[in-house]
UniProtKB/TrEMBL annotation, chains A, B:
Assigned keywords, A-Z: DNA-binding, Transcription, Transcription regulation
Entry protein name: GntR family transcriptional regulator
Domain of life: Bacteria
Native source organism of the sequence: Streptomyces hyderabadensis
InterPro entries cross-referenced by the UniProt entry: Bact_HTH_transcr_reg, Chorismate_lyase_/UTRA_dom_sf, Tscrpt_reg_HTH_GntR, UTRA, WH-like_DNA-bd_sf, WH_DNA-bd_sf
Amino acid sequence: MGTTQLESVPEPKYWHLRTVLSEALDSEFEVGEILPNERDLAARFGVARATLRQALEQLELEGRLQRRRGVGTTVAPPRVGVAVGTPDHTWPGTADDAWQPADCRLAAPPAAVADALETDRDEPVHTVRRSRVSHGQPVAAELLYVPPASVPELTAIDAPSGPARARAVLRELQRGDLERQESAVELGSAGADDAKELDRLPGAPVLVVTTRYLAGGRTAALSVATYRADTCRLTFGESGDVQIHHGPQTQAS
Amino acid sequence: MGTTQLESVPEPKYWHLRTVLSEALDSEFEVGEILPNERDLAARFGVARATLRQALEQLELEGRLQRRRGVGTTVAPPRVGVAVGTPDHTWPGTADDAWQPADCRLAAPPAAVADALETDRDEPVHTVRRSRVSHGQPVAAELLYVPPASVPELTAIDAPSGPARARAVLRELQRGDLERQESAVELGSAGADDAKELDRLPGAPVLVVTTRYLAGGRTAALSVATYRADTCRLTFGESGDVQIHHGPQTQAS
DNA sequence: TAGTGGTCTAGACCACTGA
DNA sequence: CAGTGGTCTAGACCACTAG
């Protein structure tokens, strides 16, 4: 990071700063390397700390930086591709299962979920909580809603609750033949519980993947999964791993 | 918004404020209604304007609010579902074409794009710029990279450049038989040009959809599309419109 | 305990919109 | 023009991590 001054330009300081830092990251830093602390960086560029932080937030949103309280700011590795489009990676129990069941409860779901499942609003459904790990890092937290009708042979004795119960539900669910799945992706922010599971602070940006599993002409299950937006790239279809995007698009015209 | 004071809680003020406002939005406001201005709101809750703004930013990220400089803050309508998983909605020229070609240039693409296309890094490719409109609002800006080999019958005479040229390229491209497509979704921020096209400020959060189109065993084209993260929900597969998510996930335990 | 990022304040000025 | 959100400052204190 050679120069230490910002020219006066009509664009916001924090945006210009973002660009300068981004180029510095490309040319002068290695993945995992720690940056100078925020107070030093702000002084070096002659801006207030809040302005510097605005630039860092942008870069973190783009997956270029990783910040941890009490530790520092490090250069983030490229985002990991996470397959979500094919049943292999989400329908429970398939071979390379990166999902780890955490809990299971029987309770009435949110109204919107009940509507999508076509169950009564106060009819309890199995609610499985799972977390997904990739490359040793937690990447997603999921709530899977399974109406009792989808797991008819589930015996109450298997296990009362907890991970064992969750596995029993998933095992029974998998006996059904999945026809197809429909997904939607949108931006959201992590709630307190998801944040803890994803090792982030509350409000951290997440990609919310809502998936409806269809089997036997019915909605067999419905999943709401939150993926870390800073570290994940969601892939659909054959896991063809296209890695193109890097920073805001700029078109020389 | 009845109460005007925040209790002292161990959670950040802006987060608590976000929750309070979110509930107020559900119960006391209609879509399109304008909120009091930031200075009034901050005073009403007894916090600094910056803190209030942090809460509003969260809600905007979640698609609950829409803020426009010089105008005010309004309650946003639910996100619109935008189909991106099936060729019908992205492969050029299909029936219900919501895409509007804006420009076309012949130029060497970014290195990463050239690698994915399996062309030489300095080999020029057709670069089509399109924008997608839904419900009268711009929702996406796209750069479509088409190697000359994918449009062999394109005559240089059709049109030198501009929208007409873009349409010619798309028309020729469509003559190929699309086998399948692979997509990836990640979070990004809008560059200056995308931002203008999407009617947002630079740095606005976008969902970057990178798609590789396969035809005749080759990569026929590659697209990098940026969708407004605040207003869009990307749907994959049959356009089954699951609308579940609303605010951070909270699990009563 | 020293150093980091996270939160919060109270101001100021700017860029933009619409009447 | 008045009013809005957007940017920026210079501080302060807190929560967390690691030696």
